[in-house]
Amino acid sequence: MQLEEPLVSIIIPVYNRAAVIERALQSVHEQTYKTLEVIVIDDCSTDATQEIVKGFADKRIVYYRLKKNSGAATARNNGIRLARGSYISFLDSDDVLEPQFVEKSLAKIENSSPDCGFVWTGCRRVKNEHGELSIKEEIWRPQIIESPYITFLHGLHIGIGCGLTFKSEVFHRSKFYFDEELKAAEDTDFFLRVSQSYSFDVVPDCLITIHQEAEDRLSLSYEKNAKAYEKIISKHGHKIENYKSLRFKYNYKGMWYNLAAGCRSSALKYFFKLLKVEPFNPKIWLVLLSYFLLGKELAKRLHLKHSK
């Protein structure tokens, strides 16, 4: 007797994406794996997003509109609570899945070790910078440093929109959700918490296309990032303190985000912590002095240019 195929829930948070949401839905509609439900969480769009989603000819689509604009973390959490699938995937509303995304992701996670809680795929990044298109394919395959958690603390090069599929137990049994108090870096915080309980695996194919515009959804709000990393450091400081490289990394992030946000007093707090780690590192002094001597906007542009 053939076993019933597991249901996979695909969660799509959306806000004012009338111009591109149909493209995302079409890519889900064309999946080779058909046992799906598609949960669109509308964060109070004011354009034609609702009409387009409801008018799309696929009965597997569930549309849910939040009562007030609440941000990405809240939208995703609402989608998770509505999801009935054994597996949960995430898709940003302006991105596109390859037809075999679900099929290959499901095959990987079902054939990985029992402690594997999630997998991700390679991605194709399409950037539109002032009319010039660039395309880059990338697959992040991290080398494990002690554990998944310590590995992610040292470097995390994925976001929730990078072709992620989770076992539903990660959310429904283990109660891992996105921190709705964070208005930035909620992906980083989420992965650092989940990786303490679950391992991961990687699908070695580029199965999602991520579209980025010049003024992209990833554009930084420095004040929000500064506050987010202050909370992340407080949550994981007990581990960060054990590694010199991590003390430098997270205190440098804290200093730079606060400088870029114009919060000099908070930036100095991280600066003095950095001096205890690497007092003669010229990078620390150059960044600090550039913001104090050149002003926030010029220093920010120079820093971003030389960080690429």
From TrEMBL:
- Span of domain Glycosyltransferase 2-like: 9-171
Q: Which UniProt keywords apply?
A: Transferase
Q: Which domain of life is it from?
A: Bacteria
Q: Name its species.
A: Pontibacter chinhatensis
Supply the name of the protein.
Glycosyltransferase involved in cell wall bisynthesis
User: What InterPro entries has UniProt attached to this entry?
Assistant: Glyco_trans_2-like (IPR001173), Nucleotide-diphossugar_trans (IPR029044)
Please give one Pfam family short name. Answer: Glycos_transf_2
Q: Is-annotated flag, keyword Transferase? A: yes
What are the protein's GO molecular function terms?
Answer: hexosyltransferase activity
Q: Keyword Transferase, does the record have it? A: yes
